[in-house]
Design brief:
Blueprint: H1 14-30, E1 39-52, E2 57-73, H2 82-85, E3 90-98, E4 101-112, E5 117-126, E6 130-140, E7 145-158, E8 170-188, E9 191-210, E10 215-219, E11 225-235, E12 240-250, E13 255-268, E14 271-281, E15 290-301
Antiparallel strand pairs: 1-2, 1-15, 2-3, 3-4, 4-5, 5-6, 6-7, 7-8, 8-9, 9-10, 9-11, 11-12, 12-13, 13-14, 14-15
Length: about 300
């Protein structure tokens, strides 16, 4: 973590209050459903987070739902890895709010049972006309290892201003990214642990703009940026998981590092609590160099 950053426990901010209210709903509505069978088709989650950048705090809240077309079996492994060991075709929707901005993400995976390949895609939209489209192809290399390739294109639209007339441009910036990632599960005596990582290459090929009289397109010539990530999780019991992760994002004129740690506890086989802490080091002068995020998530399955 950044020097002197000092991770602190989250305050009772709005997202945490909202998430705490749905805790009672999950515990009451989910705990008794499908717990005996050990199978589930739905996974619902709610998350609240607070980010401190050294000057101000900002809150965010996220709600998500995933439907598995074939019911997932808990099996003998850690509950957190149920969908990894028993994969199924699925459809997910996530919505979150950050300050005054709302974002929606729709994604899905289609499992080809015989070959253990899976294909997927996602669409993300956010206020201010920001859109992301992506496709995914992955394969199980045996029952405990996956290799995945994802290609995304994002388009950010800007410049819509009632104060501008003819000379204020409207336009968009397109960003293309390609990510290759893996996940691997192993056992050491009675312990289960996972290793994961990935490499992302991104580029911003062009800037397109137009005024009321003169449309134009500019090749930005921006150097590609790269992201390297690695993570590990340890499961001392079926109910408890401990995670740690590290990311580095770098380009020609910038580098930032992100560190994270967390814990997830299934206090019932189909209801889990998760706490996580992360620190983003932007390598800028204080007080702008560090961003600290604290979050709490609850997950229910039925």
């Amino acid at each position: 973590m950044g020097a002197g950053s000092g991770l602190r426990m989250p305050r009772a901010s709005a997202p945490f209050v909202g998430i705490s209210l749905i805790c009672a709903f999950f515990v009451a509505a989910v705990s008794g459903i499908a717990a005996a069978q050990g199978r589930y088709s739905w996974e619902l989650s709610g998350l609240g987070s607070t980010t401190d950048n050294g000057i101000t705090d900002s809150d965010a809240s996220t709600f998500g739902a995933t439907y598995y077309f074939d019911r997932v079996q808990d099996g003998e492994g850690p509950y957190a890895l149920s969908a990894f060991f028993d994969p199924a075709t699925s459809l997910s929707v996530v919505t979150d709010q950050y300050r005054t901005s709302d974002r929606w993400v729709l994604s899905g995976h289609y499992l080809l049972d015989g070959s253990r390949w899976y294909l997927g895609g996602r669409y993300q939209t956010q206020d201010y006309r920001d859109d992301v489209y992506g496709v995914i192809a992955g394969k199980y290399l045996g029952p405990r290892t996956t290799l995945e390739l994802a290609v995304d294109t994002s388009k950010q639209t800007f410049g819509i201003s009632p104060a501008c007339v003819a000379l204020c441009p409207r336009g968009s910036i397109r960003t293309n990214t390609t990510t290759l990632s893996f996940a691997h599960v192993r056992n050491f005596r009675s312990l289960t642990y996972t290793l994961s990582g990935g490499f992302t290459r991104g580029e911003v090929p062009s800037f397109t703009a137009d005024t009321t009289t003169m449309p134009f397109s500019i090749s930005l010539g921006v150097d590609p940026f790269r992201t390297y990530s690695i993570g590990a999780a340890l499961y001392p019991t079926k109910k408890l998981g401990l995670q740690i992760g590290y990311d580095r994002n770098s380009g020609k004129y910038f580098t930032n590092d992100s560190y994270s740690l967390g814990a997830r506890w299934f206090f019932r086989r189909n209801v889990a609590f998760e706490l996580s802490l992360s620190n983003l080091d932007l390598h800028l002068p204080e007080p702008y160099g560090q961003q600290e995020t604290r979050s709490f998530r609850i997950t229910g399955r039925f």
